[in-house]
Structures are given as structure tokens and as C-alpha cells.
Amino acid sequence: MVSSTEYGSHTWELLLTIDHQHEGVEKEIPVMVTGDLHVGGLMLKLVEKIKVTQDWSDYAFWWEQKKCWLLKTHWTLDKCGVQADAKLIFTTQHKMLRLRLPNMKTVRLKVSFSSMVFRAVSDICKMLNIRRSEELSLLKQSEGTLKKKKKKDKNSKEPATEDILNLSNSPVGSGLPANPGLYSKTMTPIYDPVSGSPASSTITWFSDGSLTEQNCSILALSHPTCSPEMLAEMYQPRTLADKAKLNAGWLDSSRSLMEQGVQEEDQLLLRFKYYTFFDLNPKYDAVRINQIYEQARWAILLEEIDCTEEEMLIFAALQAYHVSKLSLSSETQDSTCESEVDEVEAALFNLEVTLEGGNKTNILEDITDIPKLADNLKLIRPKKLALKAIKTYWFVFRDTSISYFKNKESAQGEPIEKLNLKGCEVVPDVNVAAKKFGIKLLIPVADGMNEVYLRCDNEDQYARWMAACVLASKGRTMADSSYRPEVQKILSFLQMKNWTMCSQAASEPENADMKPECFVSPRFTKKFKSKQLTARILEAHQNVSQMSLVEAKLRFIQAWQSLPEFGLSYYIVRFKGSKKDDVLGVSYNRLIRIDMATGDPITTWRFSNMKQWNVNWEIRQVAIEFDQNVFIAFTCLSADCKIIHEYIGGYIFLSTRSKDHNETLDEELFHKLTGGQE
What's the confidence (pLDDT) of residue 468? Predict the structure, then answer.
């Protein structure tokens, strides 16, 4: 027995649990402590009692009952609130985690379980050579999305060891040496613009040993697609409510993995959460471009995003036939080792294919001259209990508004109607084969959305008017430097859709074993026979057959970005004062209230008009104030309201990025905008 005089009257016993693998060493050790002992001193006492010589620097105390780390080692036990009944576990901060990447490959690596998820994702991305880590996050697959798999295959086991890319030898995280990778300012890594892979001589600039050339190839190149049977077993959302399940499991970026119930060797999904791909550059972003492409590909195959038959065939021609074929070709593999990229040629290539920004040489012209469009277009107004009224008018597009007149001669007078497009929804209604070039405008009004259709005569006219409408919806005019690139992007997408029958391609020997079911969503495999699909995919392929591998991926991403539903994350919510549930779509620049039964948009609110937003954590209600005294409030039913709060703050944070200071992230600002005060 120890006398009370030796320790003093304020001494008490604390039972500590040690997470270690040493045989013959106790897992639980009692330590006599006082309330004014700091956490660092408690660590020292414990290590002295364990009497095992090893590096304990990665160890910290995890408080089991309160689900928190005691990382502030200078704090006393009294300040932390630790008492005799506290269950403290002395465990490593870095643990093994399995991550399923967008290309469906699983990597196993050591991740910090004590850092905030935002920091942990940043460290993971440095290891995987993915720039712009702020666009990604970790997703825990919800139970609803796993049900189909369990029903289909009750005996399914964990993936085979050879299917997992093991990067366990290179721990990442704060406190451990991390390779600067793409963030190094001292070297300019070179990628092959055809294959999009780093040249062999520069592979060591991108890795800290474990990410070998072979592993880099796995992440940067697309590999053979899955079988139709595997596709059928995967979760495919049928309704908006199903799509809402996909976004329910995002982890809180302001808390650690351990605090959110993630255990060692658990599997999470690493996904692009925010659909604003900043400074996408083929020279540096081989892995990033491939992973974005793969996320887009799977979203289309699993019908997470809707597209027309024409668009599906284009996606099939690009991703399946073209990208898969080039990725498998030995010439592409060889070129990663032998090619030497001329700097000027690479710069010109980057200028041509980069997805961000546009030509800014005519800045003075843009400022002083606001262009306008004037054309004869058909106006279609849907009428209830009647046929659509189609009439030709003279339309004038100026600033962010469309005015229409009876004819060209009356354009000097008052218009029949003036439509302000700022904040509206712009939806393409195109069928190139049928020569149908329509623009659907959903314009916000007091009681919902005013629906207007414009019908253009040809591709050029459609591209000019569509680009103007898209910019106007964001509050920008045709004087903006992005107008011309937007027109070109629309024209190139239309050109891909415009194909002619080519019976010769379908009969070529190399196309005989093509499995079209691997390249289109199940909805289209039910609609067409295999031979019909093969022929139609090969027809569509005629317009993309000359593209390089990286260009095909970028075109695929561009086409994905052109879809009306691109970038929308859905949640089931109940608006204040409403008696029924609605769906809320969260995008990079707006929120959309959608009717859950019909899928029709009811109201759109732009982030640019938002004055403030906050959360009432007691009732879990998000409240937002917009310009013109517009207030909305809602509770989230399909996920925690913190997820939507973080989405809004995250998109606002990403809108502050610029190429002038692209090397560092303002992590404090991110947490200020997304963290909330619970």
C-alpha cells in the first residue's frame, strides 16, 4: 500500500489502456495522477511504466466516452475534464485505411485518424499525386446503397489482396515527412500530352517511394471496364430520393476520422465532392484528370445523372471504345517512357485543352463594347389543357435579358416582353439527328418558375444563343471573356453528336468482340439489341477517332459538364411552413427546390444573391437570407444538416481561389465557412 502522505490527498488512480502488439506487456496499466498533471506528463508516466523501448511519437490519448483526442499535451487533466472514470486509450494517430477511388480501384494506406478530415484528404491527395485536394472528400457508403449488393450476392467476400494497391509503407499526415509532390516549386514535372502519364525520368519527383511507375499508371490510366453482370449488381438510383442516398454519407471535414466512428482497415470512398475543377491542366494532372473522368463515367453508367440517347452514345464512343482502346495499346504505354515534350509545344497544348478560363487578349474591347444578339427565333409557351403555341418573333439579347418583338421592323419600339435571365435555369433540348435545337428557360417568378422554350434554326445560332443564356443565368454578359470558349465548347459537343452511318467500321474484325453493354447504362441495353448498340456506338466514334487519350478524357468531362443535371447533389428536405417533403439540389452556384413527385424545379436561389446563412443546431434547421428580403429555412431529412451547411460554405470557399496564390490553401477560412458552431 502507498501512504496518502506520499502522493497527497488530491491523488487518484487512472486506468489507461495501451494499444500495442507486444506479448507479455499488460494492455491496461493504472497510473496515479493529480488534476494539475498535464497530458504530456501523463504520457511520460505511462511510457516509463510500460518499459518497452520503441518510438512512441505517433501515440496519443483517445477518450473513448467523449469520442475525442487529447492532442493539446500542455493542457492539464482538470482543464480537459478527465476524471477517474475516464477511459483513455493510448493508441497510434496514423492507422491503415482502405480507400476506393473513383476508378473503383482500392488503395490501402496509412492515414491520420486524429487530423481533421480536410487535412487528412490533403495528405492523401499529395500521396496519390492529385492536385486541388479541396475538391475531394471522404464518403461513407450509406446502408441504402449496399442493399442491392447484399441481395445479389450474399456470399460476396472482401476484394482479393491482389486487387488492392498497397501503399502502406508511406504514411502520410501531419507530423510525418510528406513528399512535396506536385506542390514543389523547384521542379516542373513533365507529362506526356498523349498518354497523360509522367515520363519515367520524372517519376521520382512525384512519389516518396511507394507510388512506383506501375502504381502511377494504375491511377493515371483507364483500365478495362467492368462486365454487364458487375454493372447490374451495383446500386443504381431510380428516383430523386434514391439519388439523395448517394450524398448522405459525406464525412464532416472539421472533425477527425476517429471522431466520426471510422475504424482501422475500414473502407471509405474518395470522391470529388465539389464540381468546380479548377486549373485542370494535362501537364500536371494525369491522375486527377483520369479520376474525374472515371467518376463521370460511373455516374453515367449507373444513371446517377440523366442524359439523352444521343448523349449516351457519345459517352460510349469516347469512354468505351476510344479511351479503353488507347489505354490498352502498347504504343501508349511505350510513349510514357520515350517521349520528350517540347516546352513550347506543351504550353500550346495546355492552352488548347485547358478547361478553365479563355482568351483574354481583348480585355479593352470587352469592357467598352457589350455585344448583342438579334435573330428570328421560335417561341414556345406550354399551355395547360391545350397544344403548345409556337410562333416566330424577332429576339434581341442584350446584357442579361432577352426582349422579343413582333418583327425586326418593330424592334425600335417597346418589346412584347422582356425576360431577365439572371438566376434562371438553362436546359438544352437538342436532337442533332432530328435537327432540333431548343433552349428551355426556367425563369424565377414570385410563385415559382416561368417556363419558356426557344427554338433555333441551326447549330451556329443555337451555340451563340445557348452560350449567352448560360452566362446570363450567372449574371454575366457576352462581353465576358468566357463567352467565345463557351460557344466553341457547345459547337464541338454538337459536332460529336453529328455522325453518319458507316457500315464498314461495324464490320471490321477488331470491332467484332466489342461488348456494348459495358459502355452504356442498363436502360439502353434493354432498349436496343447488342448489334444495334455496337453499330450506333461505332457511328458516333467517327467524330472522336482522331483524338488523343487525354483529349478524349477532357472531351468526356466537358460533355459531362454540359448535362443539365451536372454538379447537382440531392437531399430530401422539409421547408419551413411546408406540409410535404421536397428535394433540394445543391450546385456550385445555386440551390434548387425540386418537386419530389415530378422532378420539376420550383425555385432557384443563387449564391451570388445570398447575404448570410446559419444553422440552428438545436432543431437542425438551415436558414438562409437572400437579396430582396427573401428568407428560406429547411430541415434535412436524408442526411445531417451539417452536410448541406458544409456544401454551401465549401462552394463559396472554392469561388475565392485564384491562380495568383494557388500553392497554399487558406484552411482557416475553409473551416470558418463550413465548420459551424454546434
Answer: 94
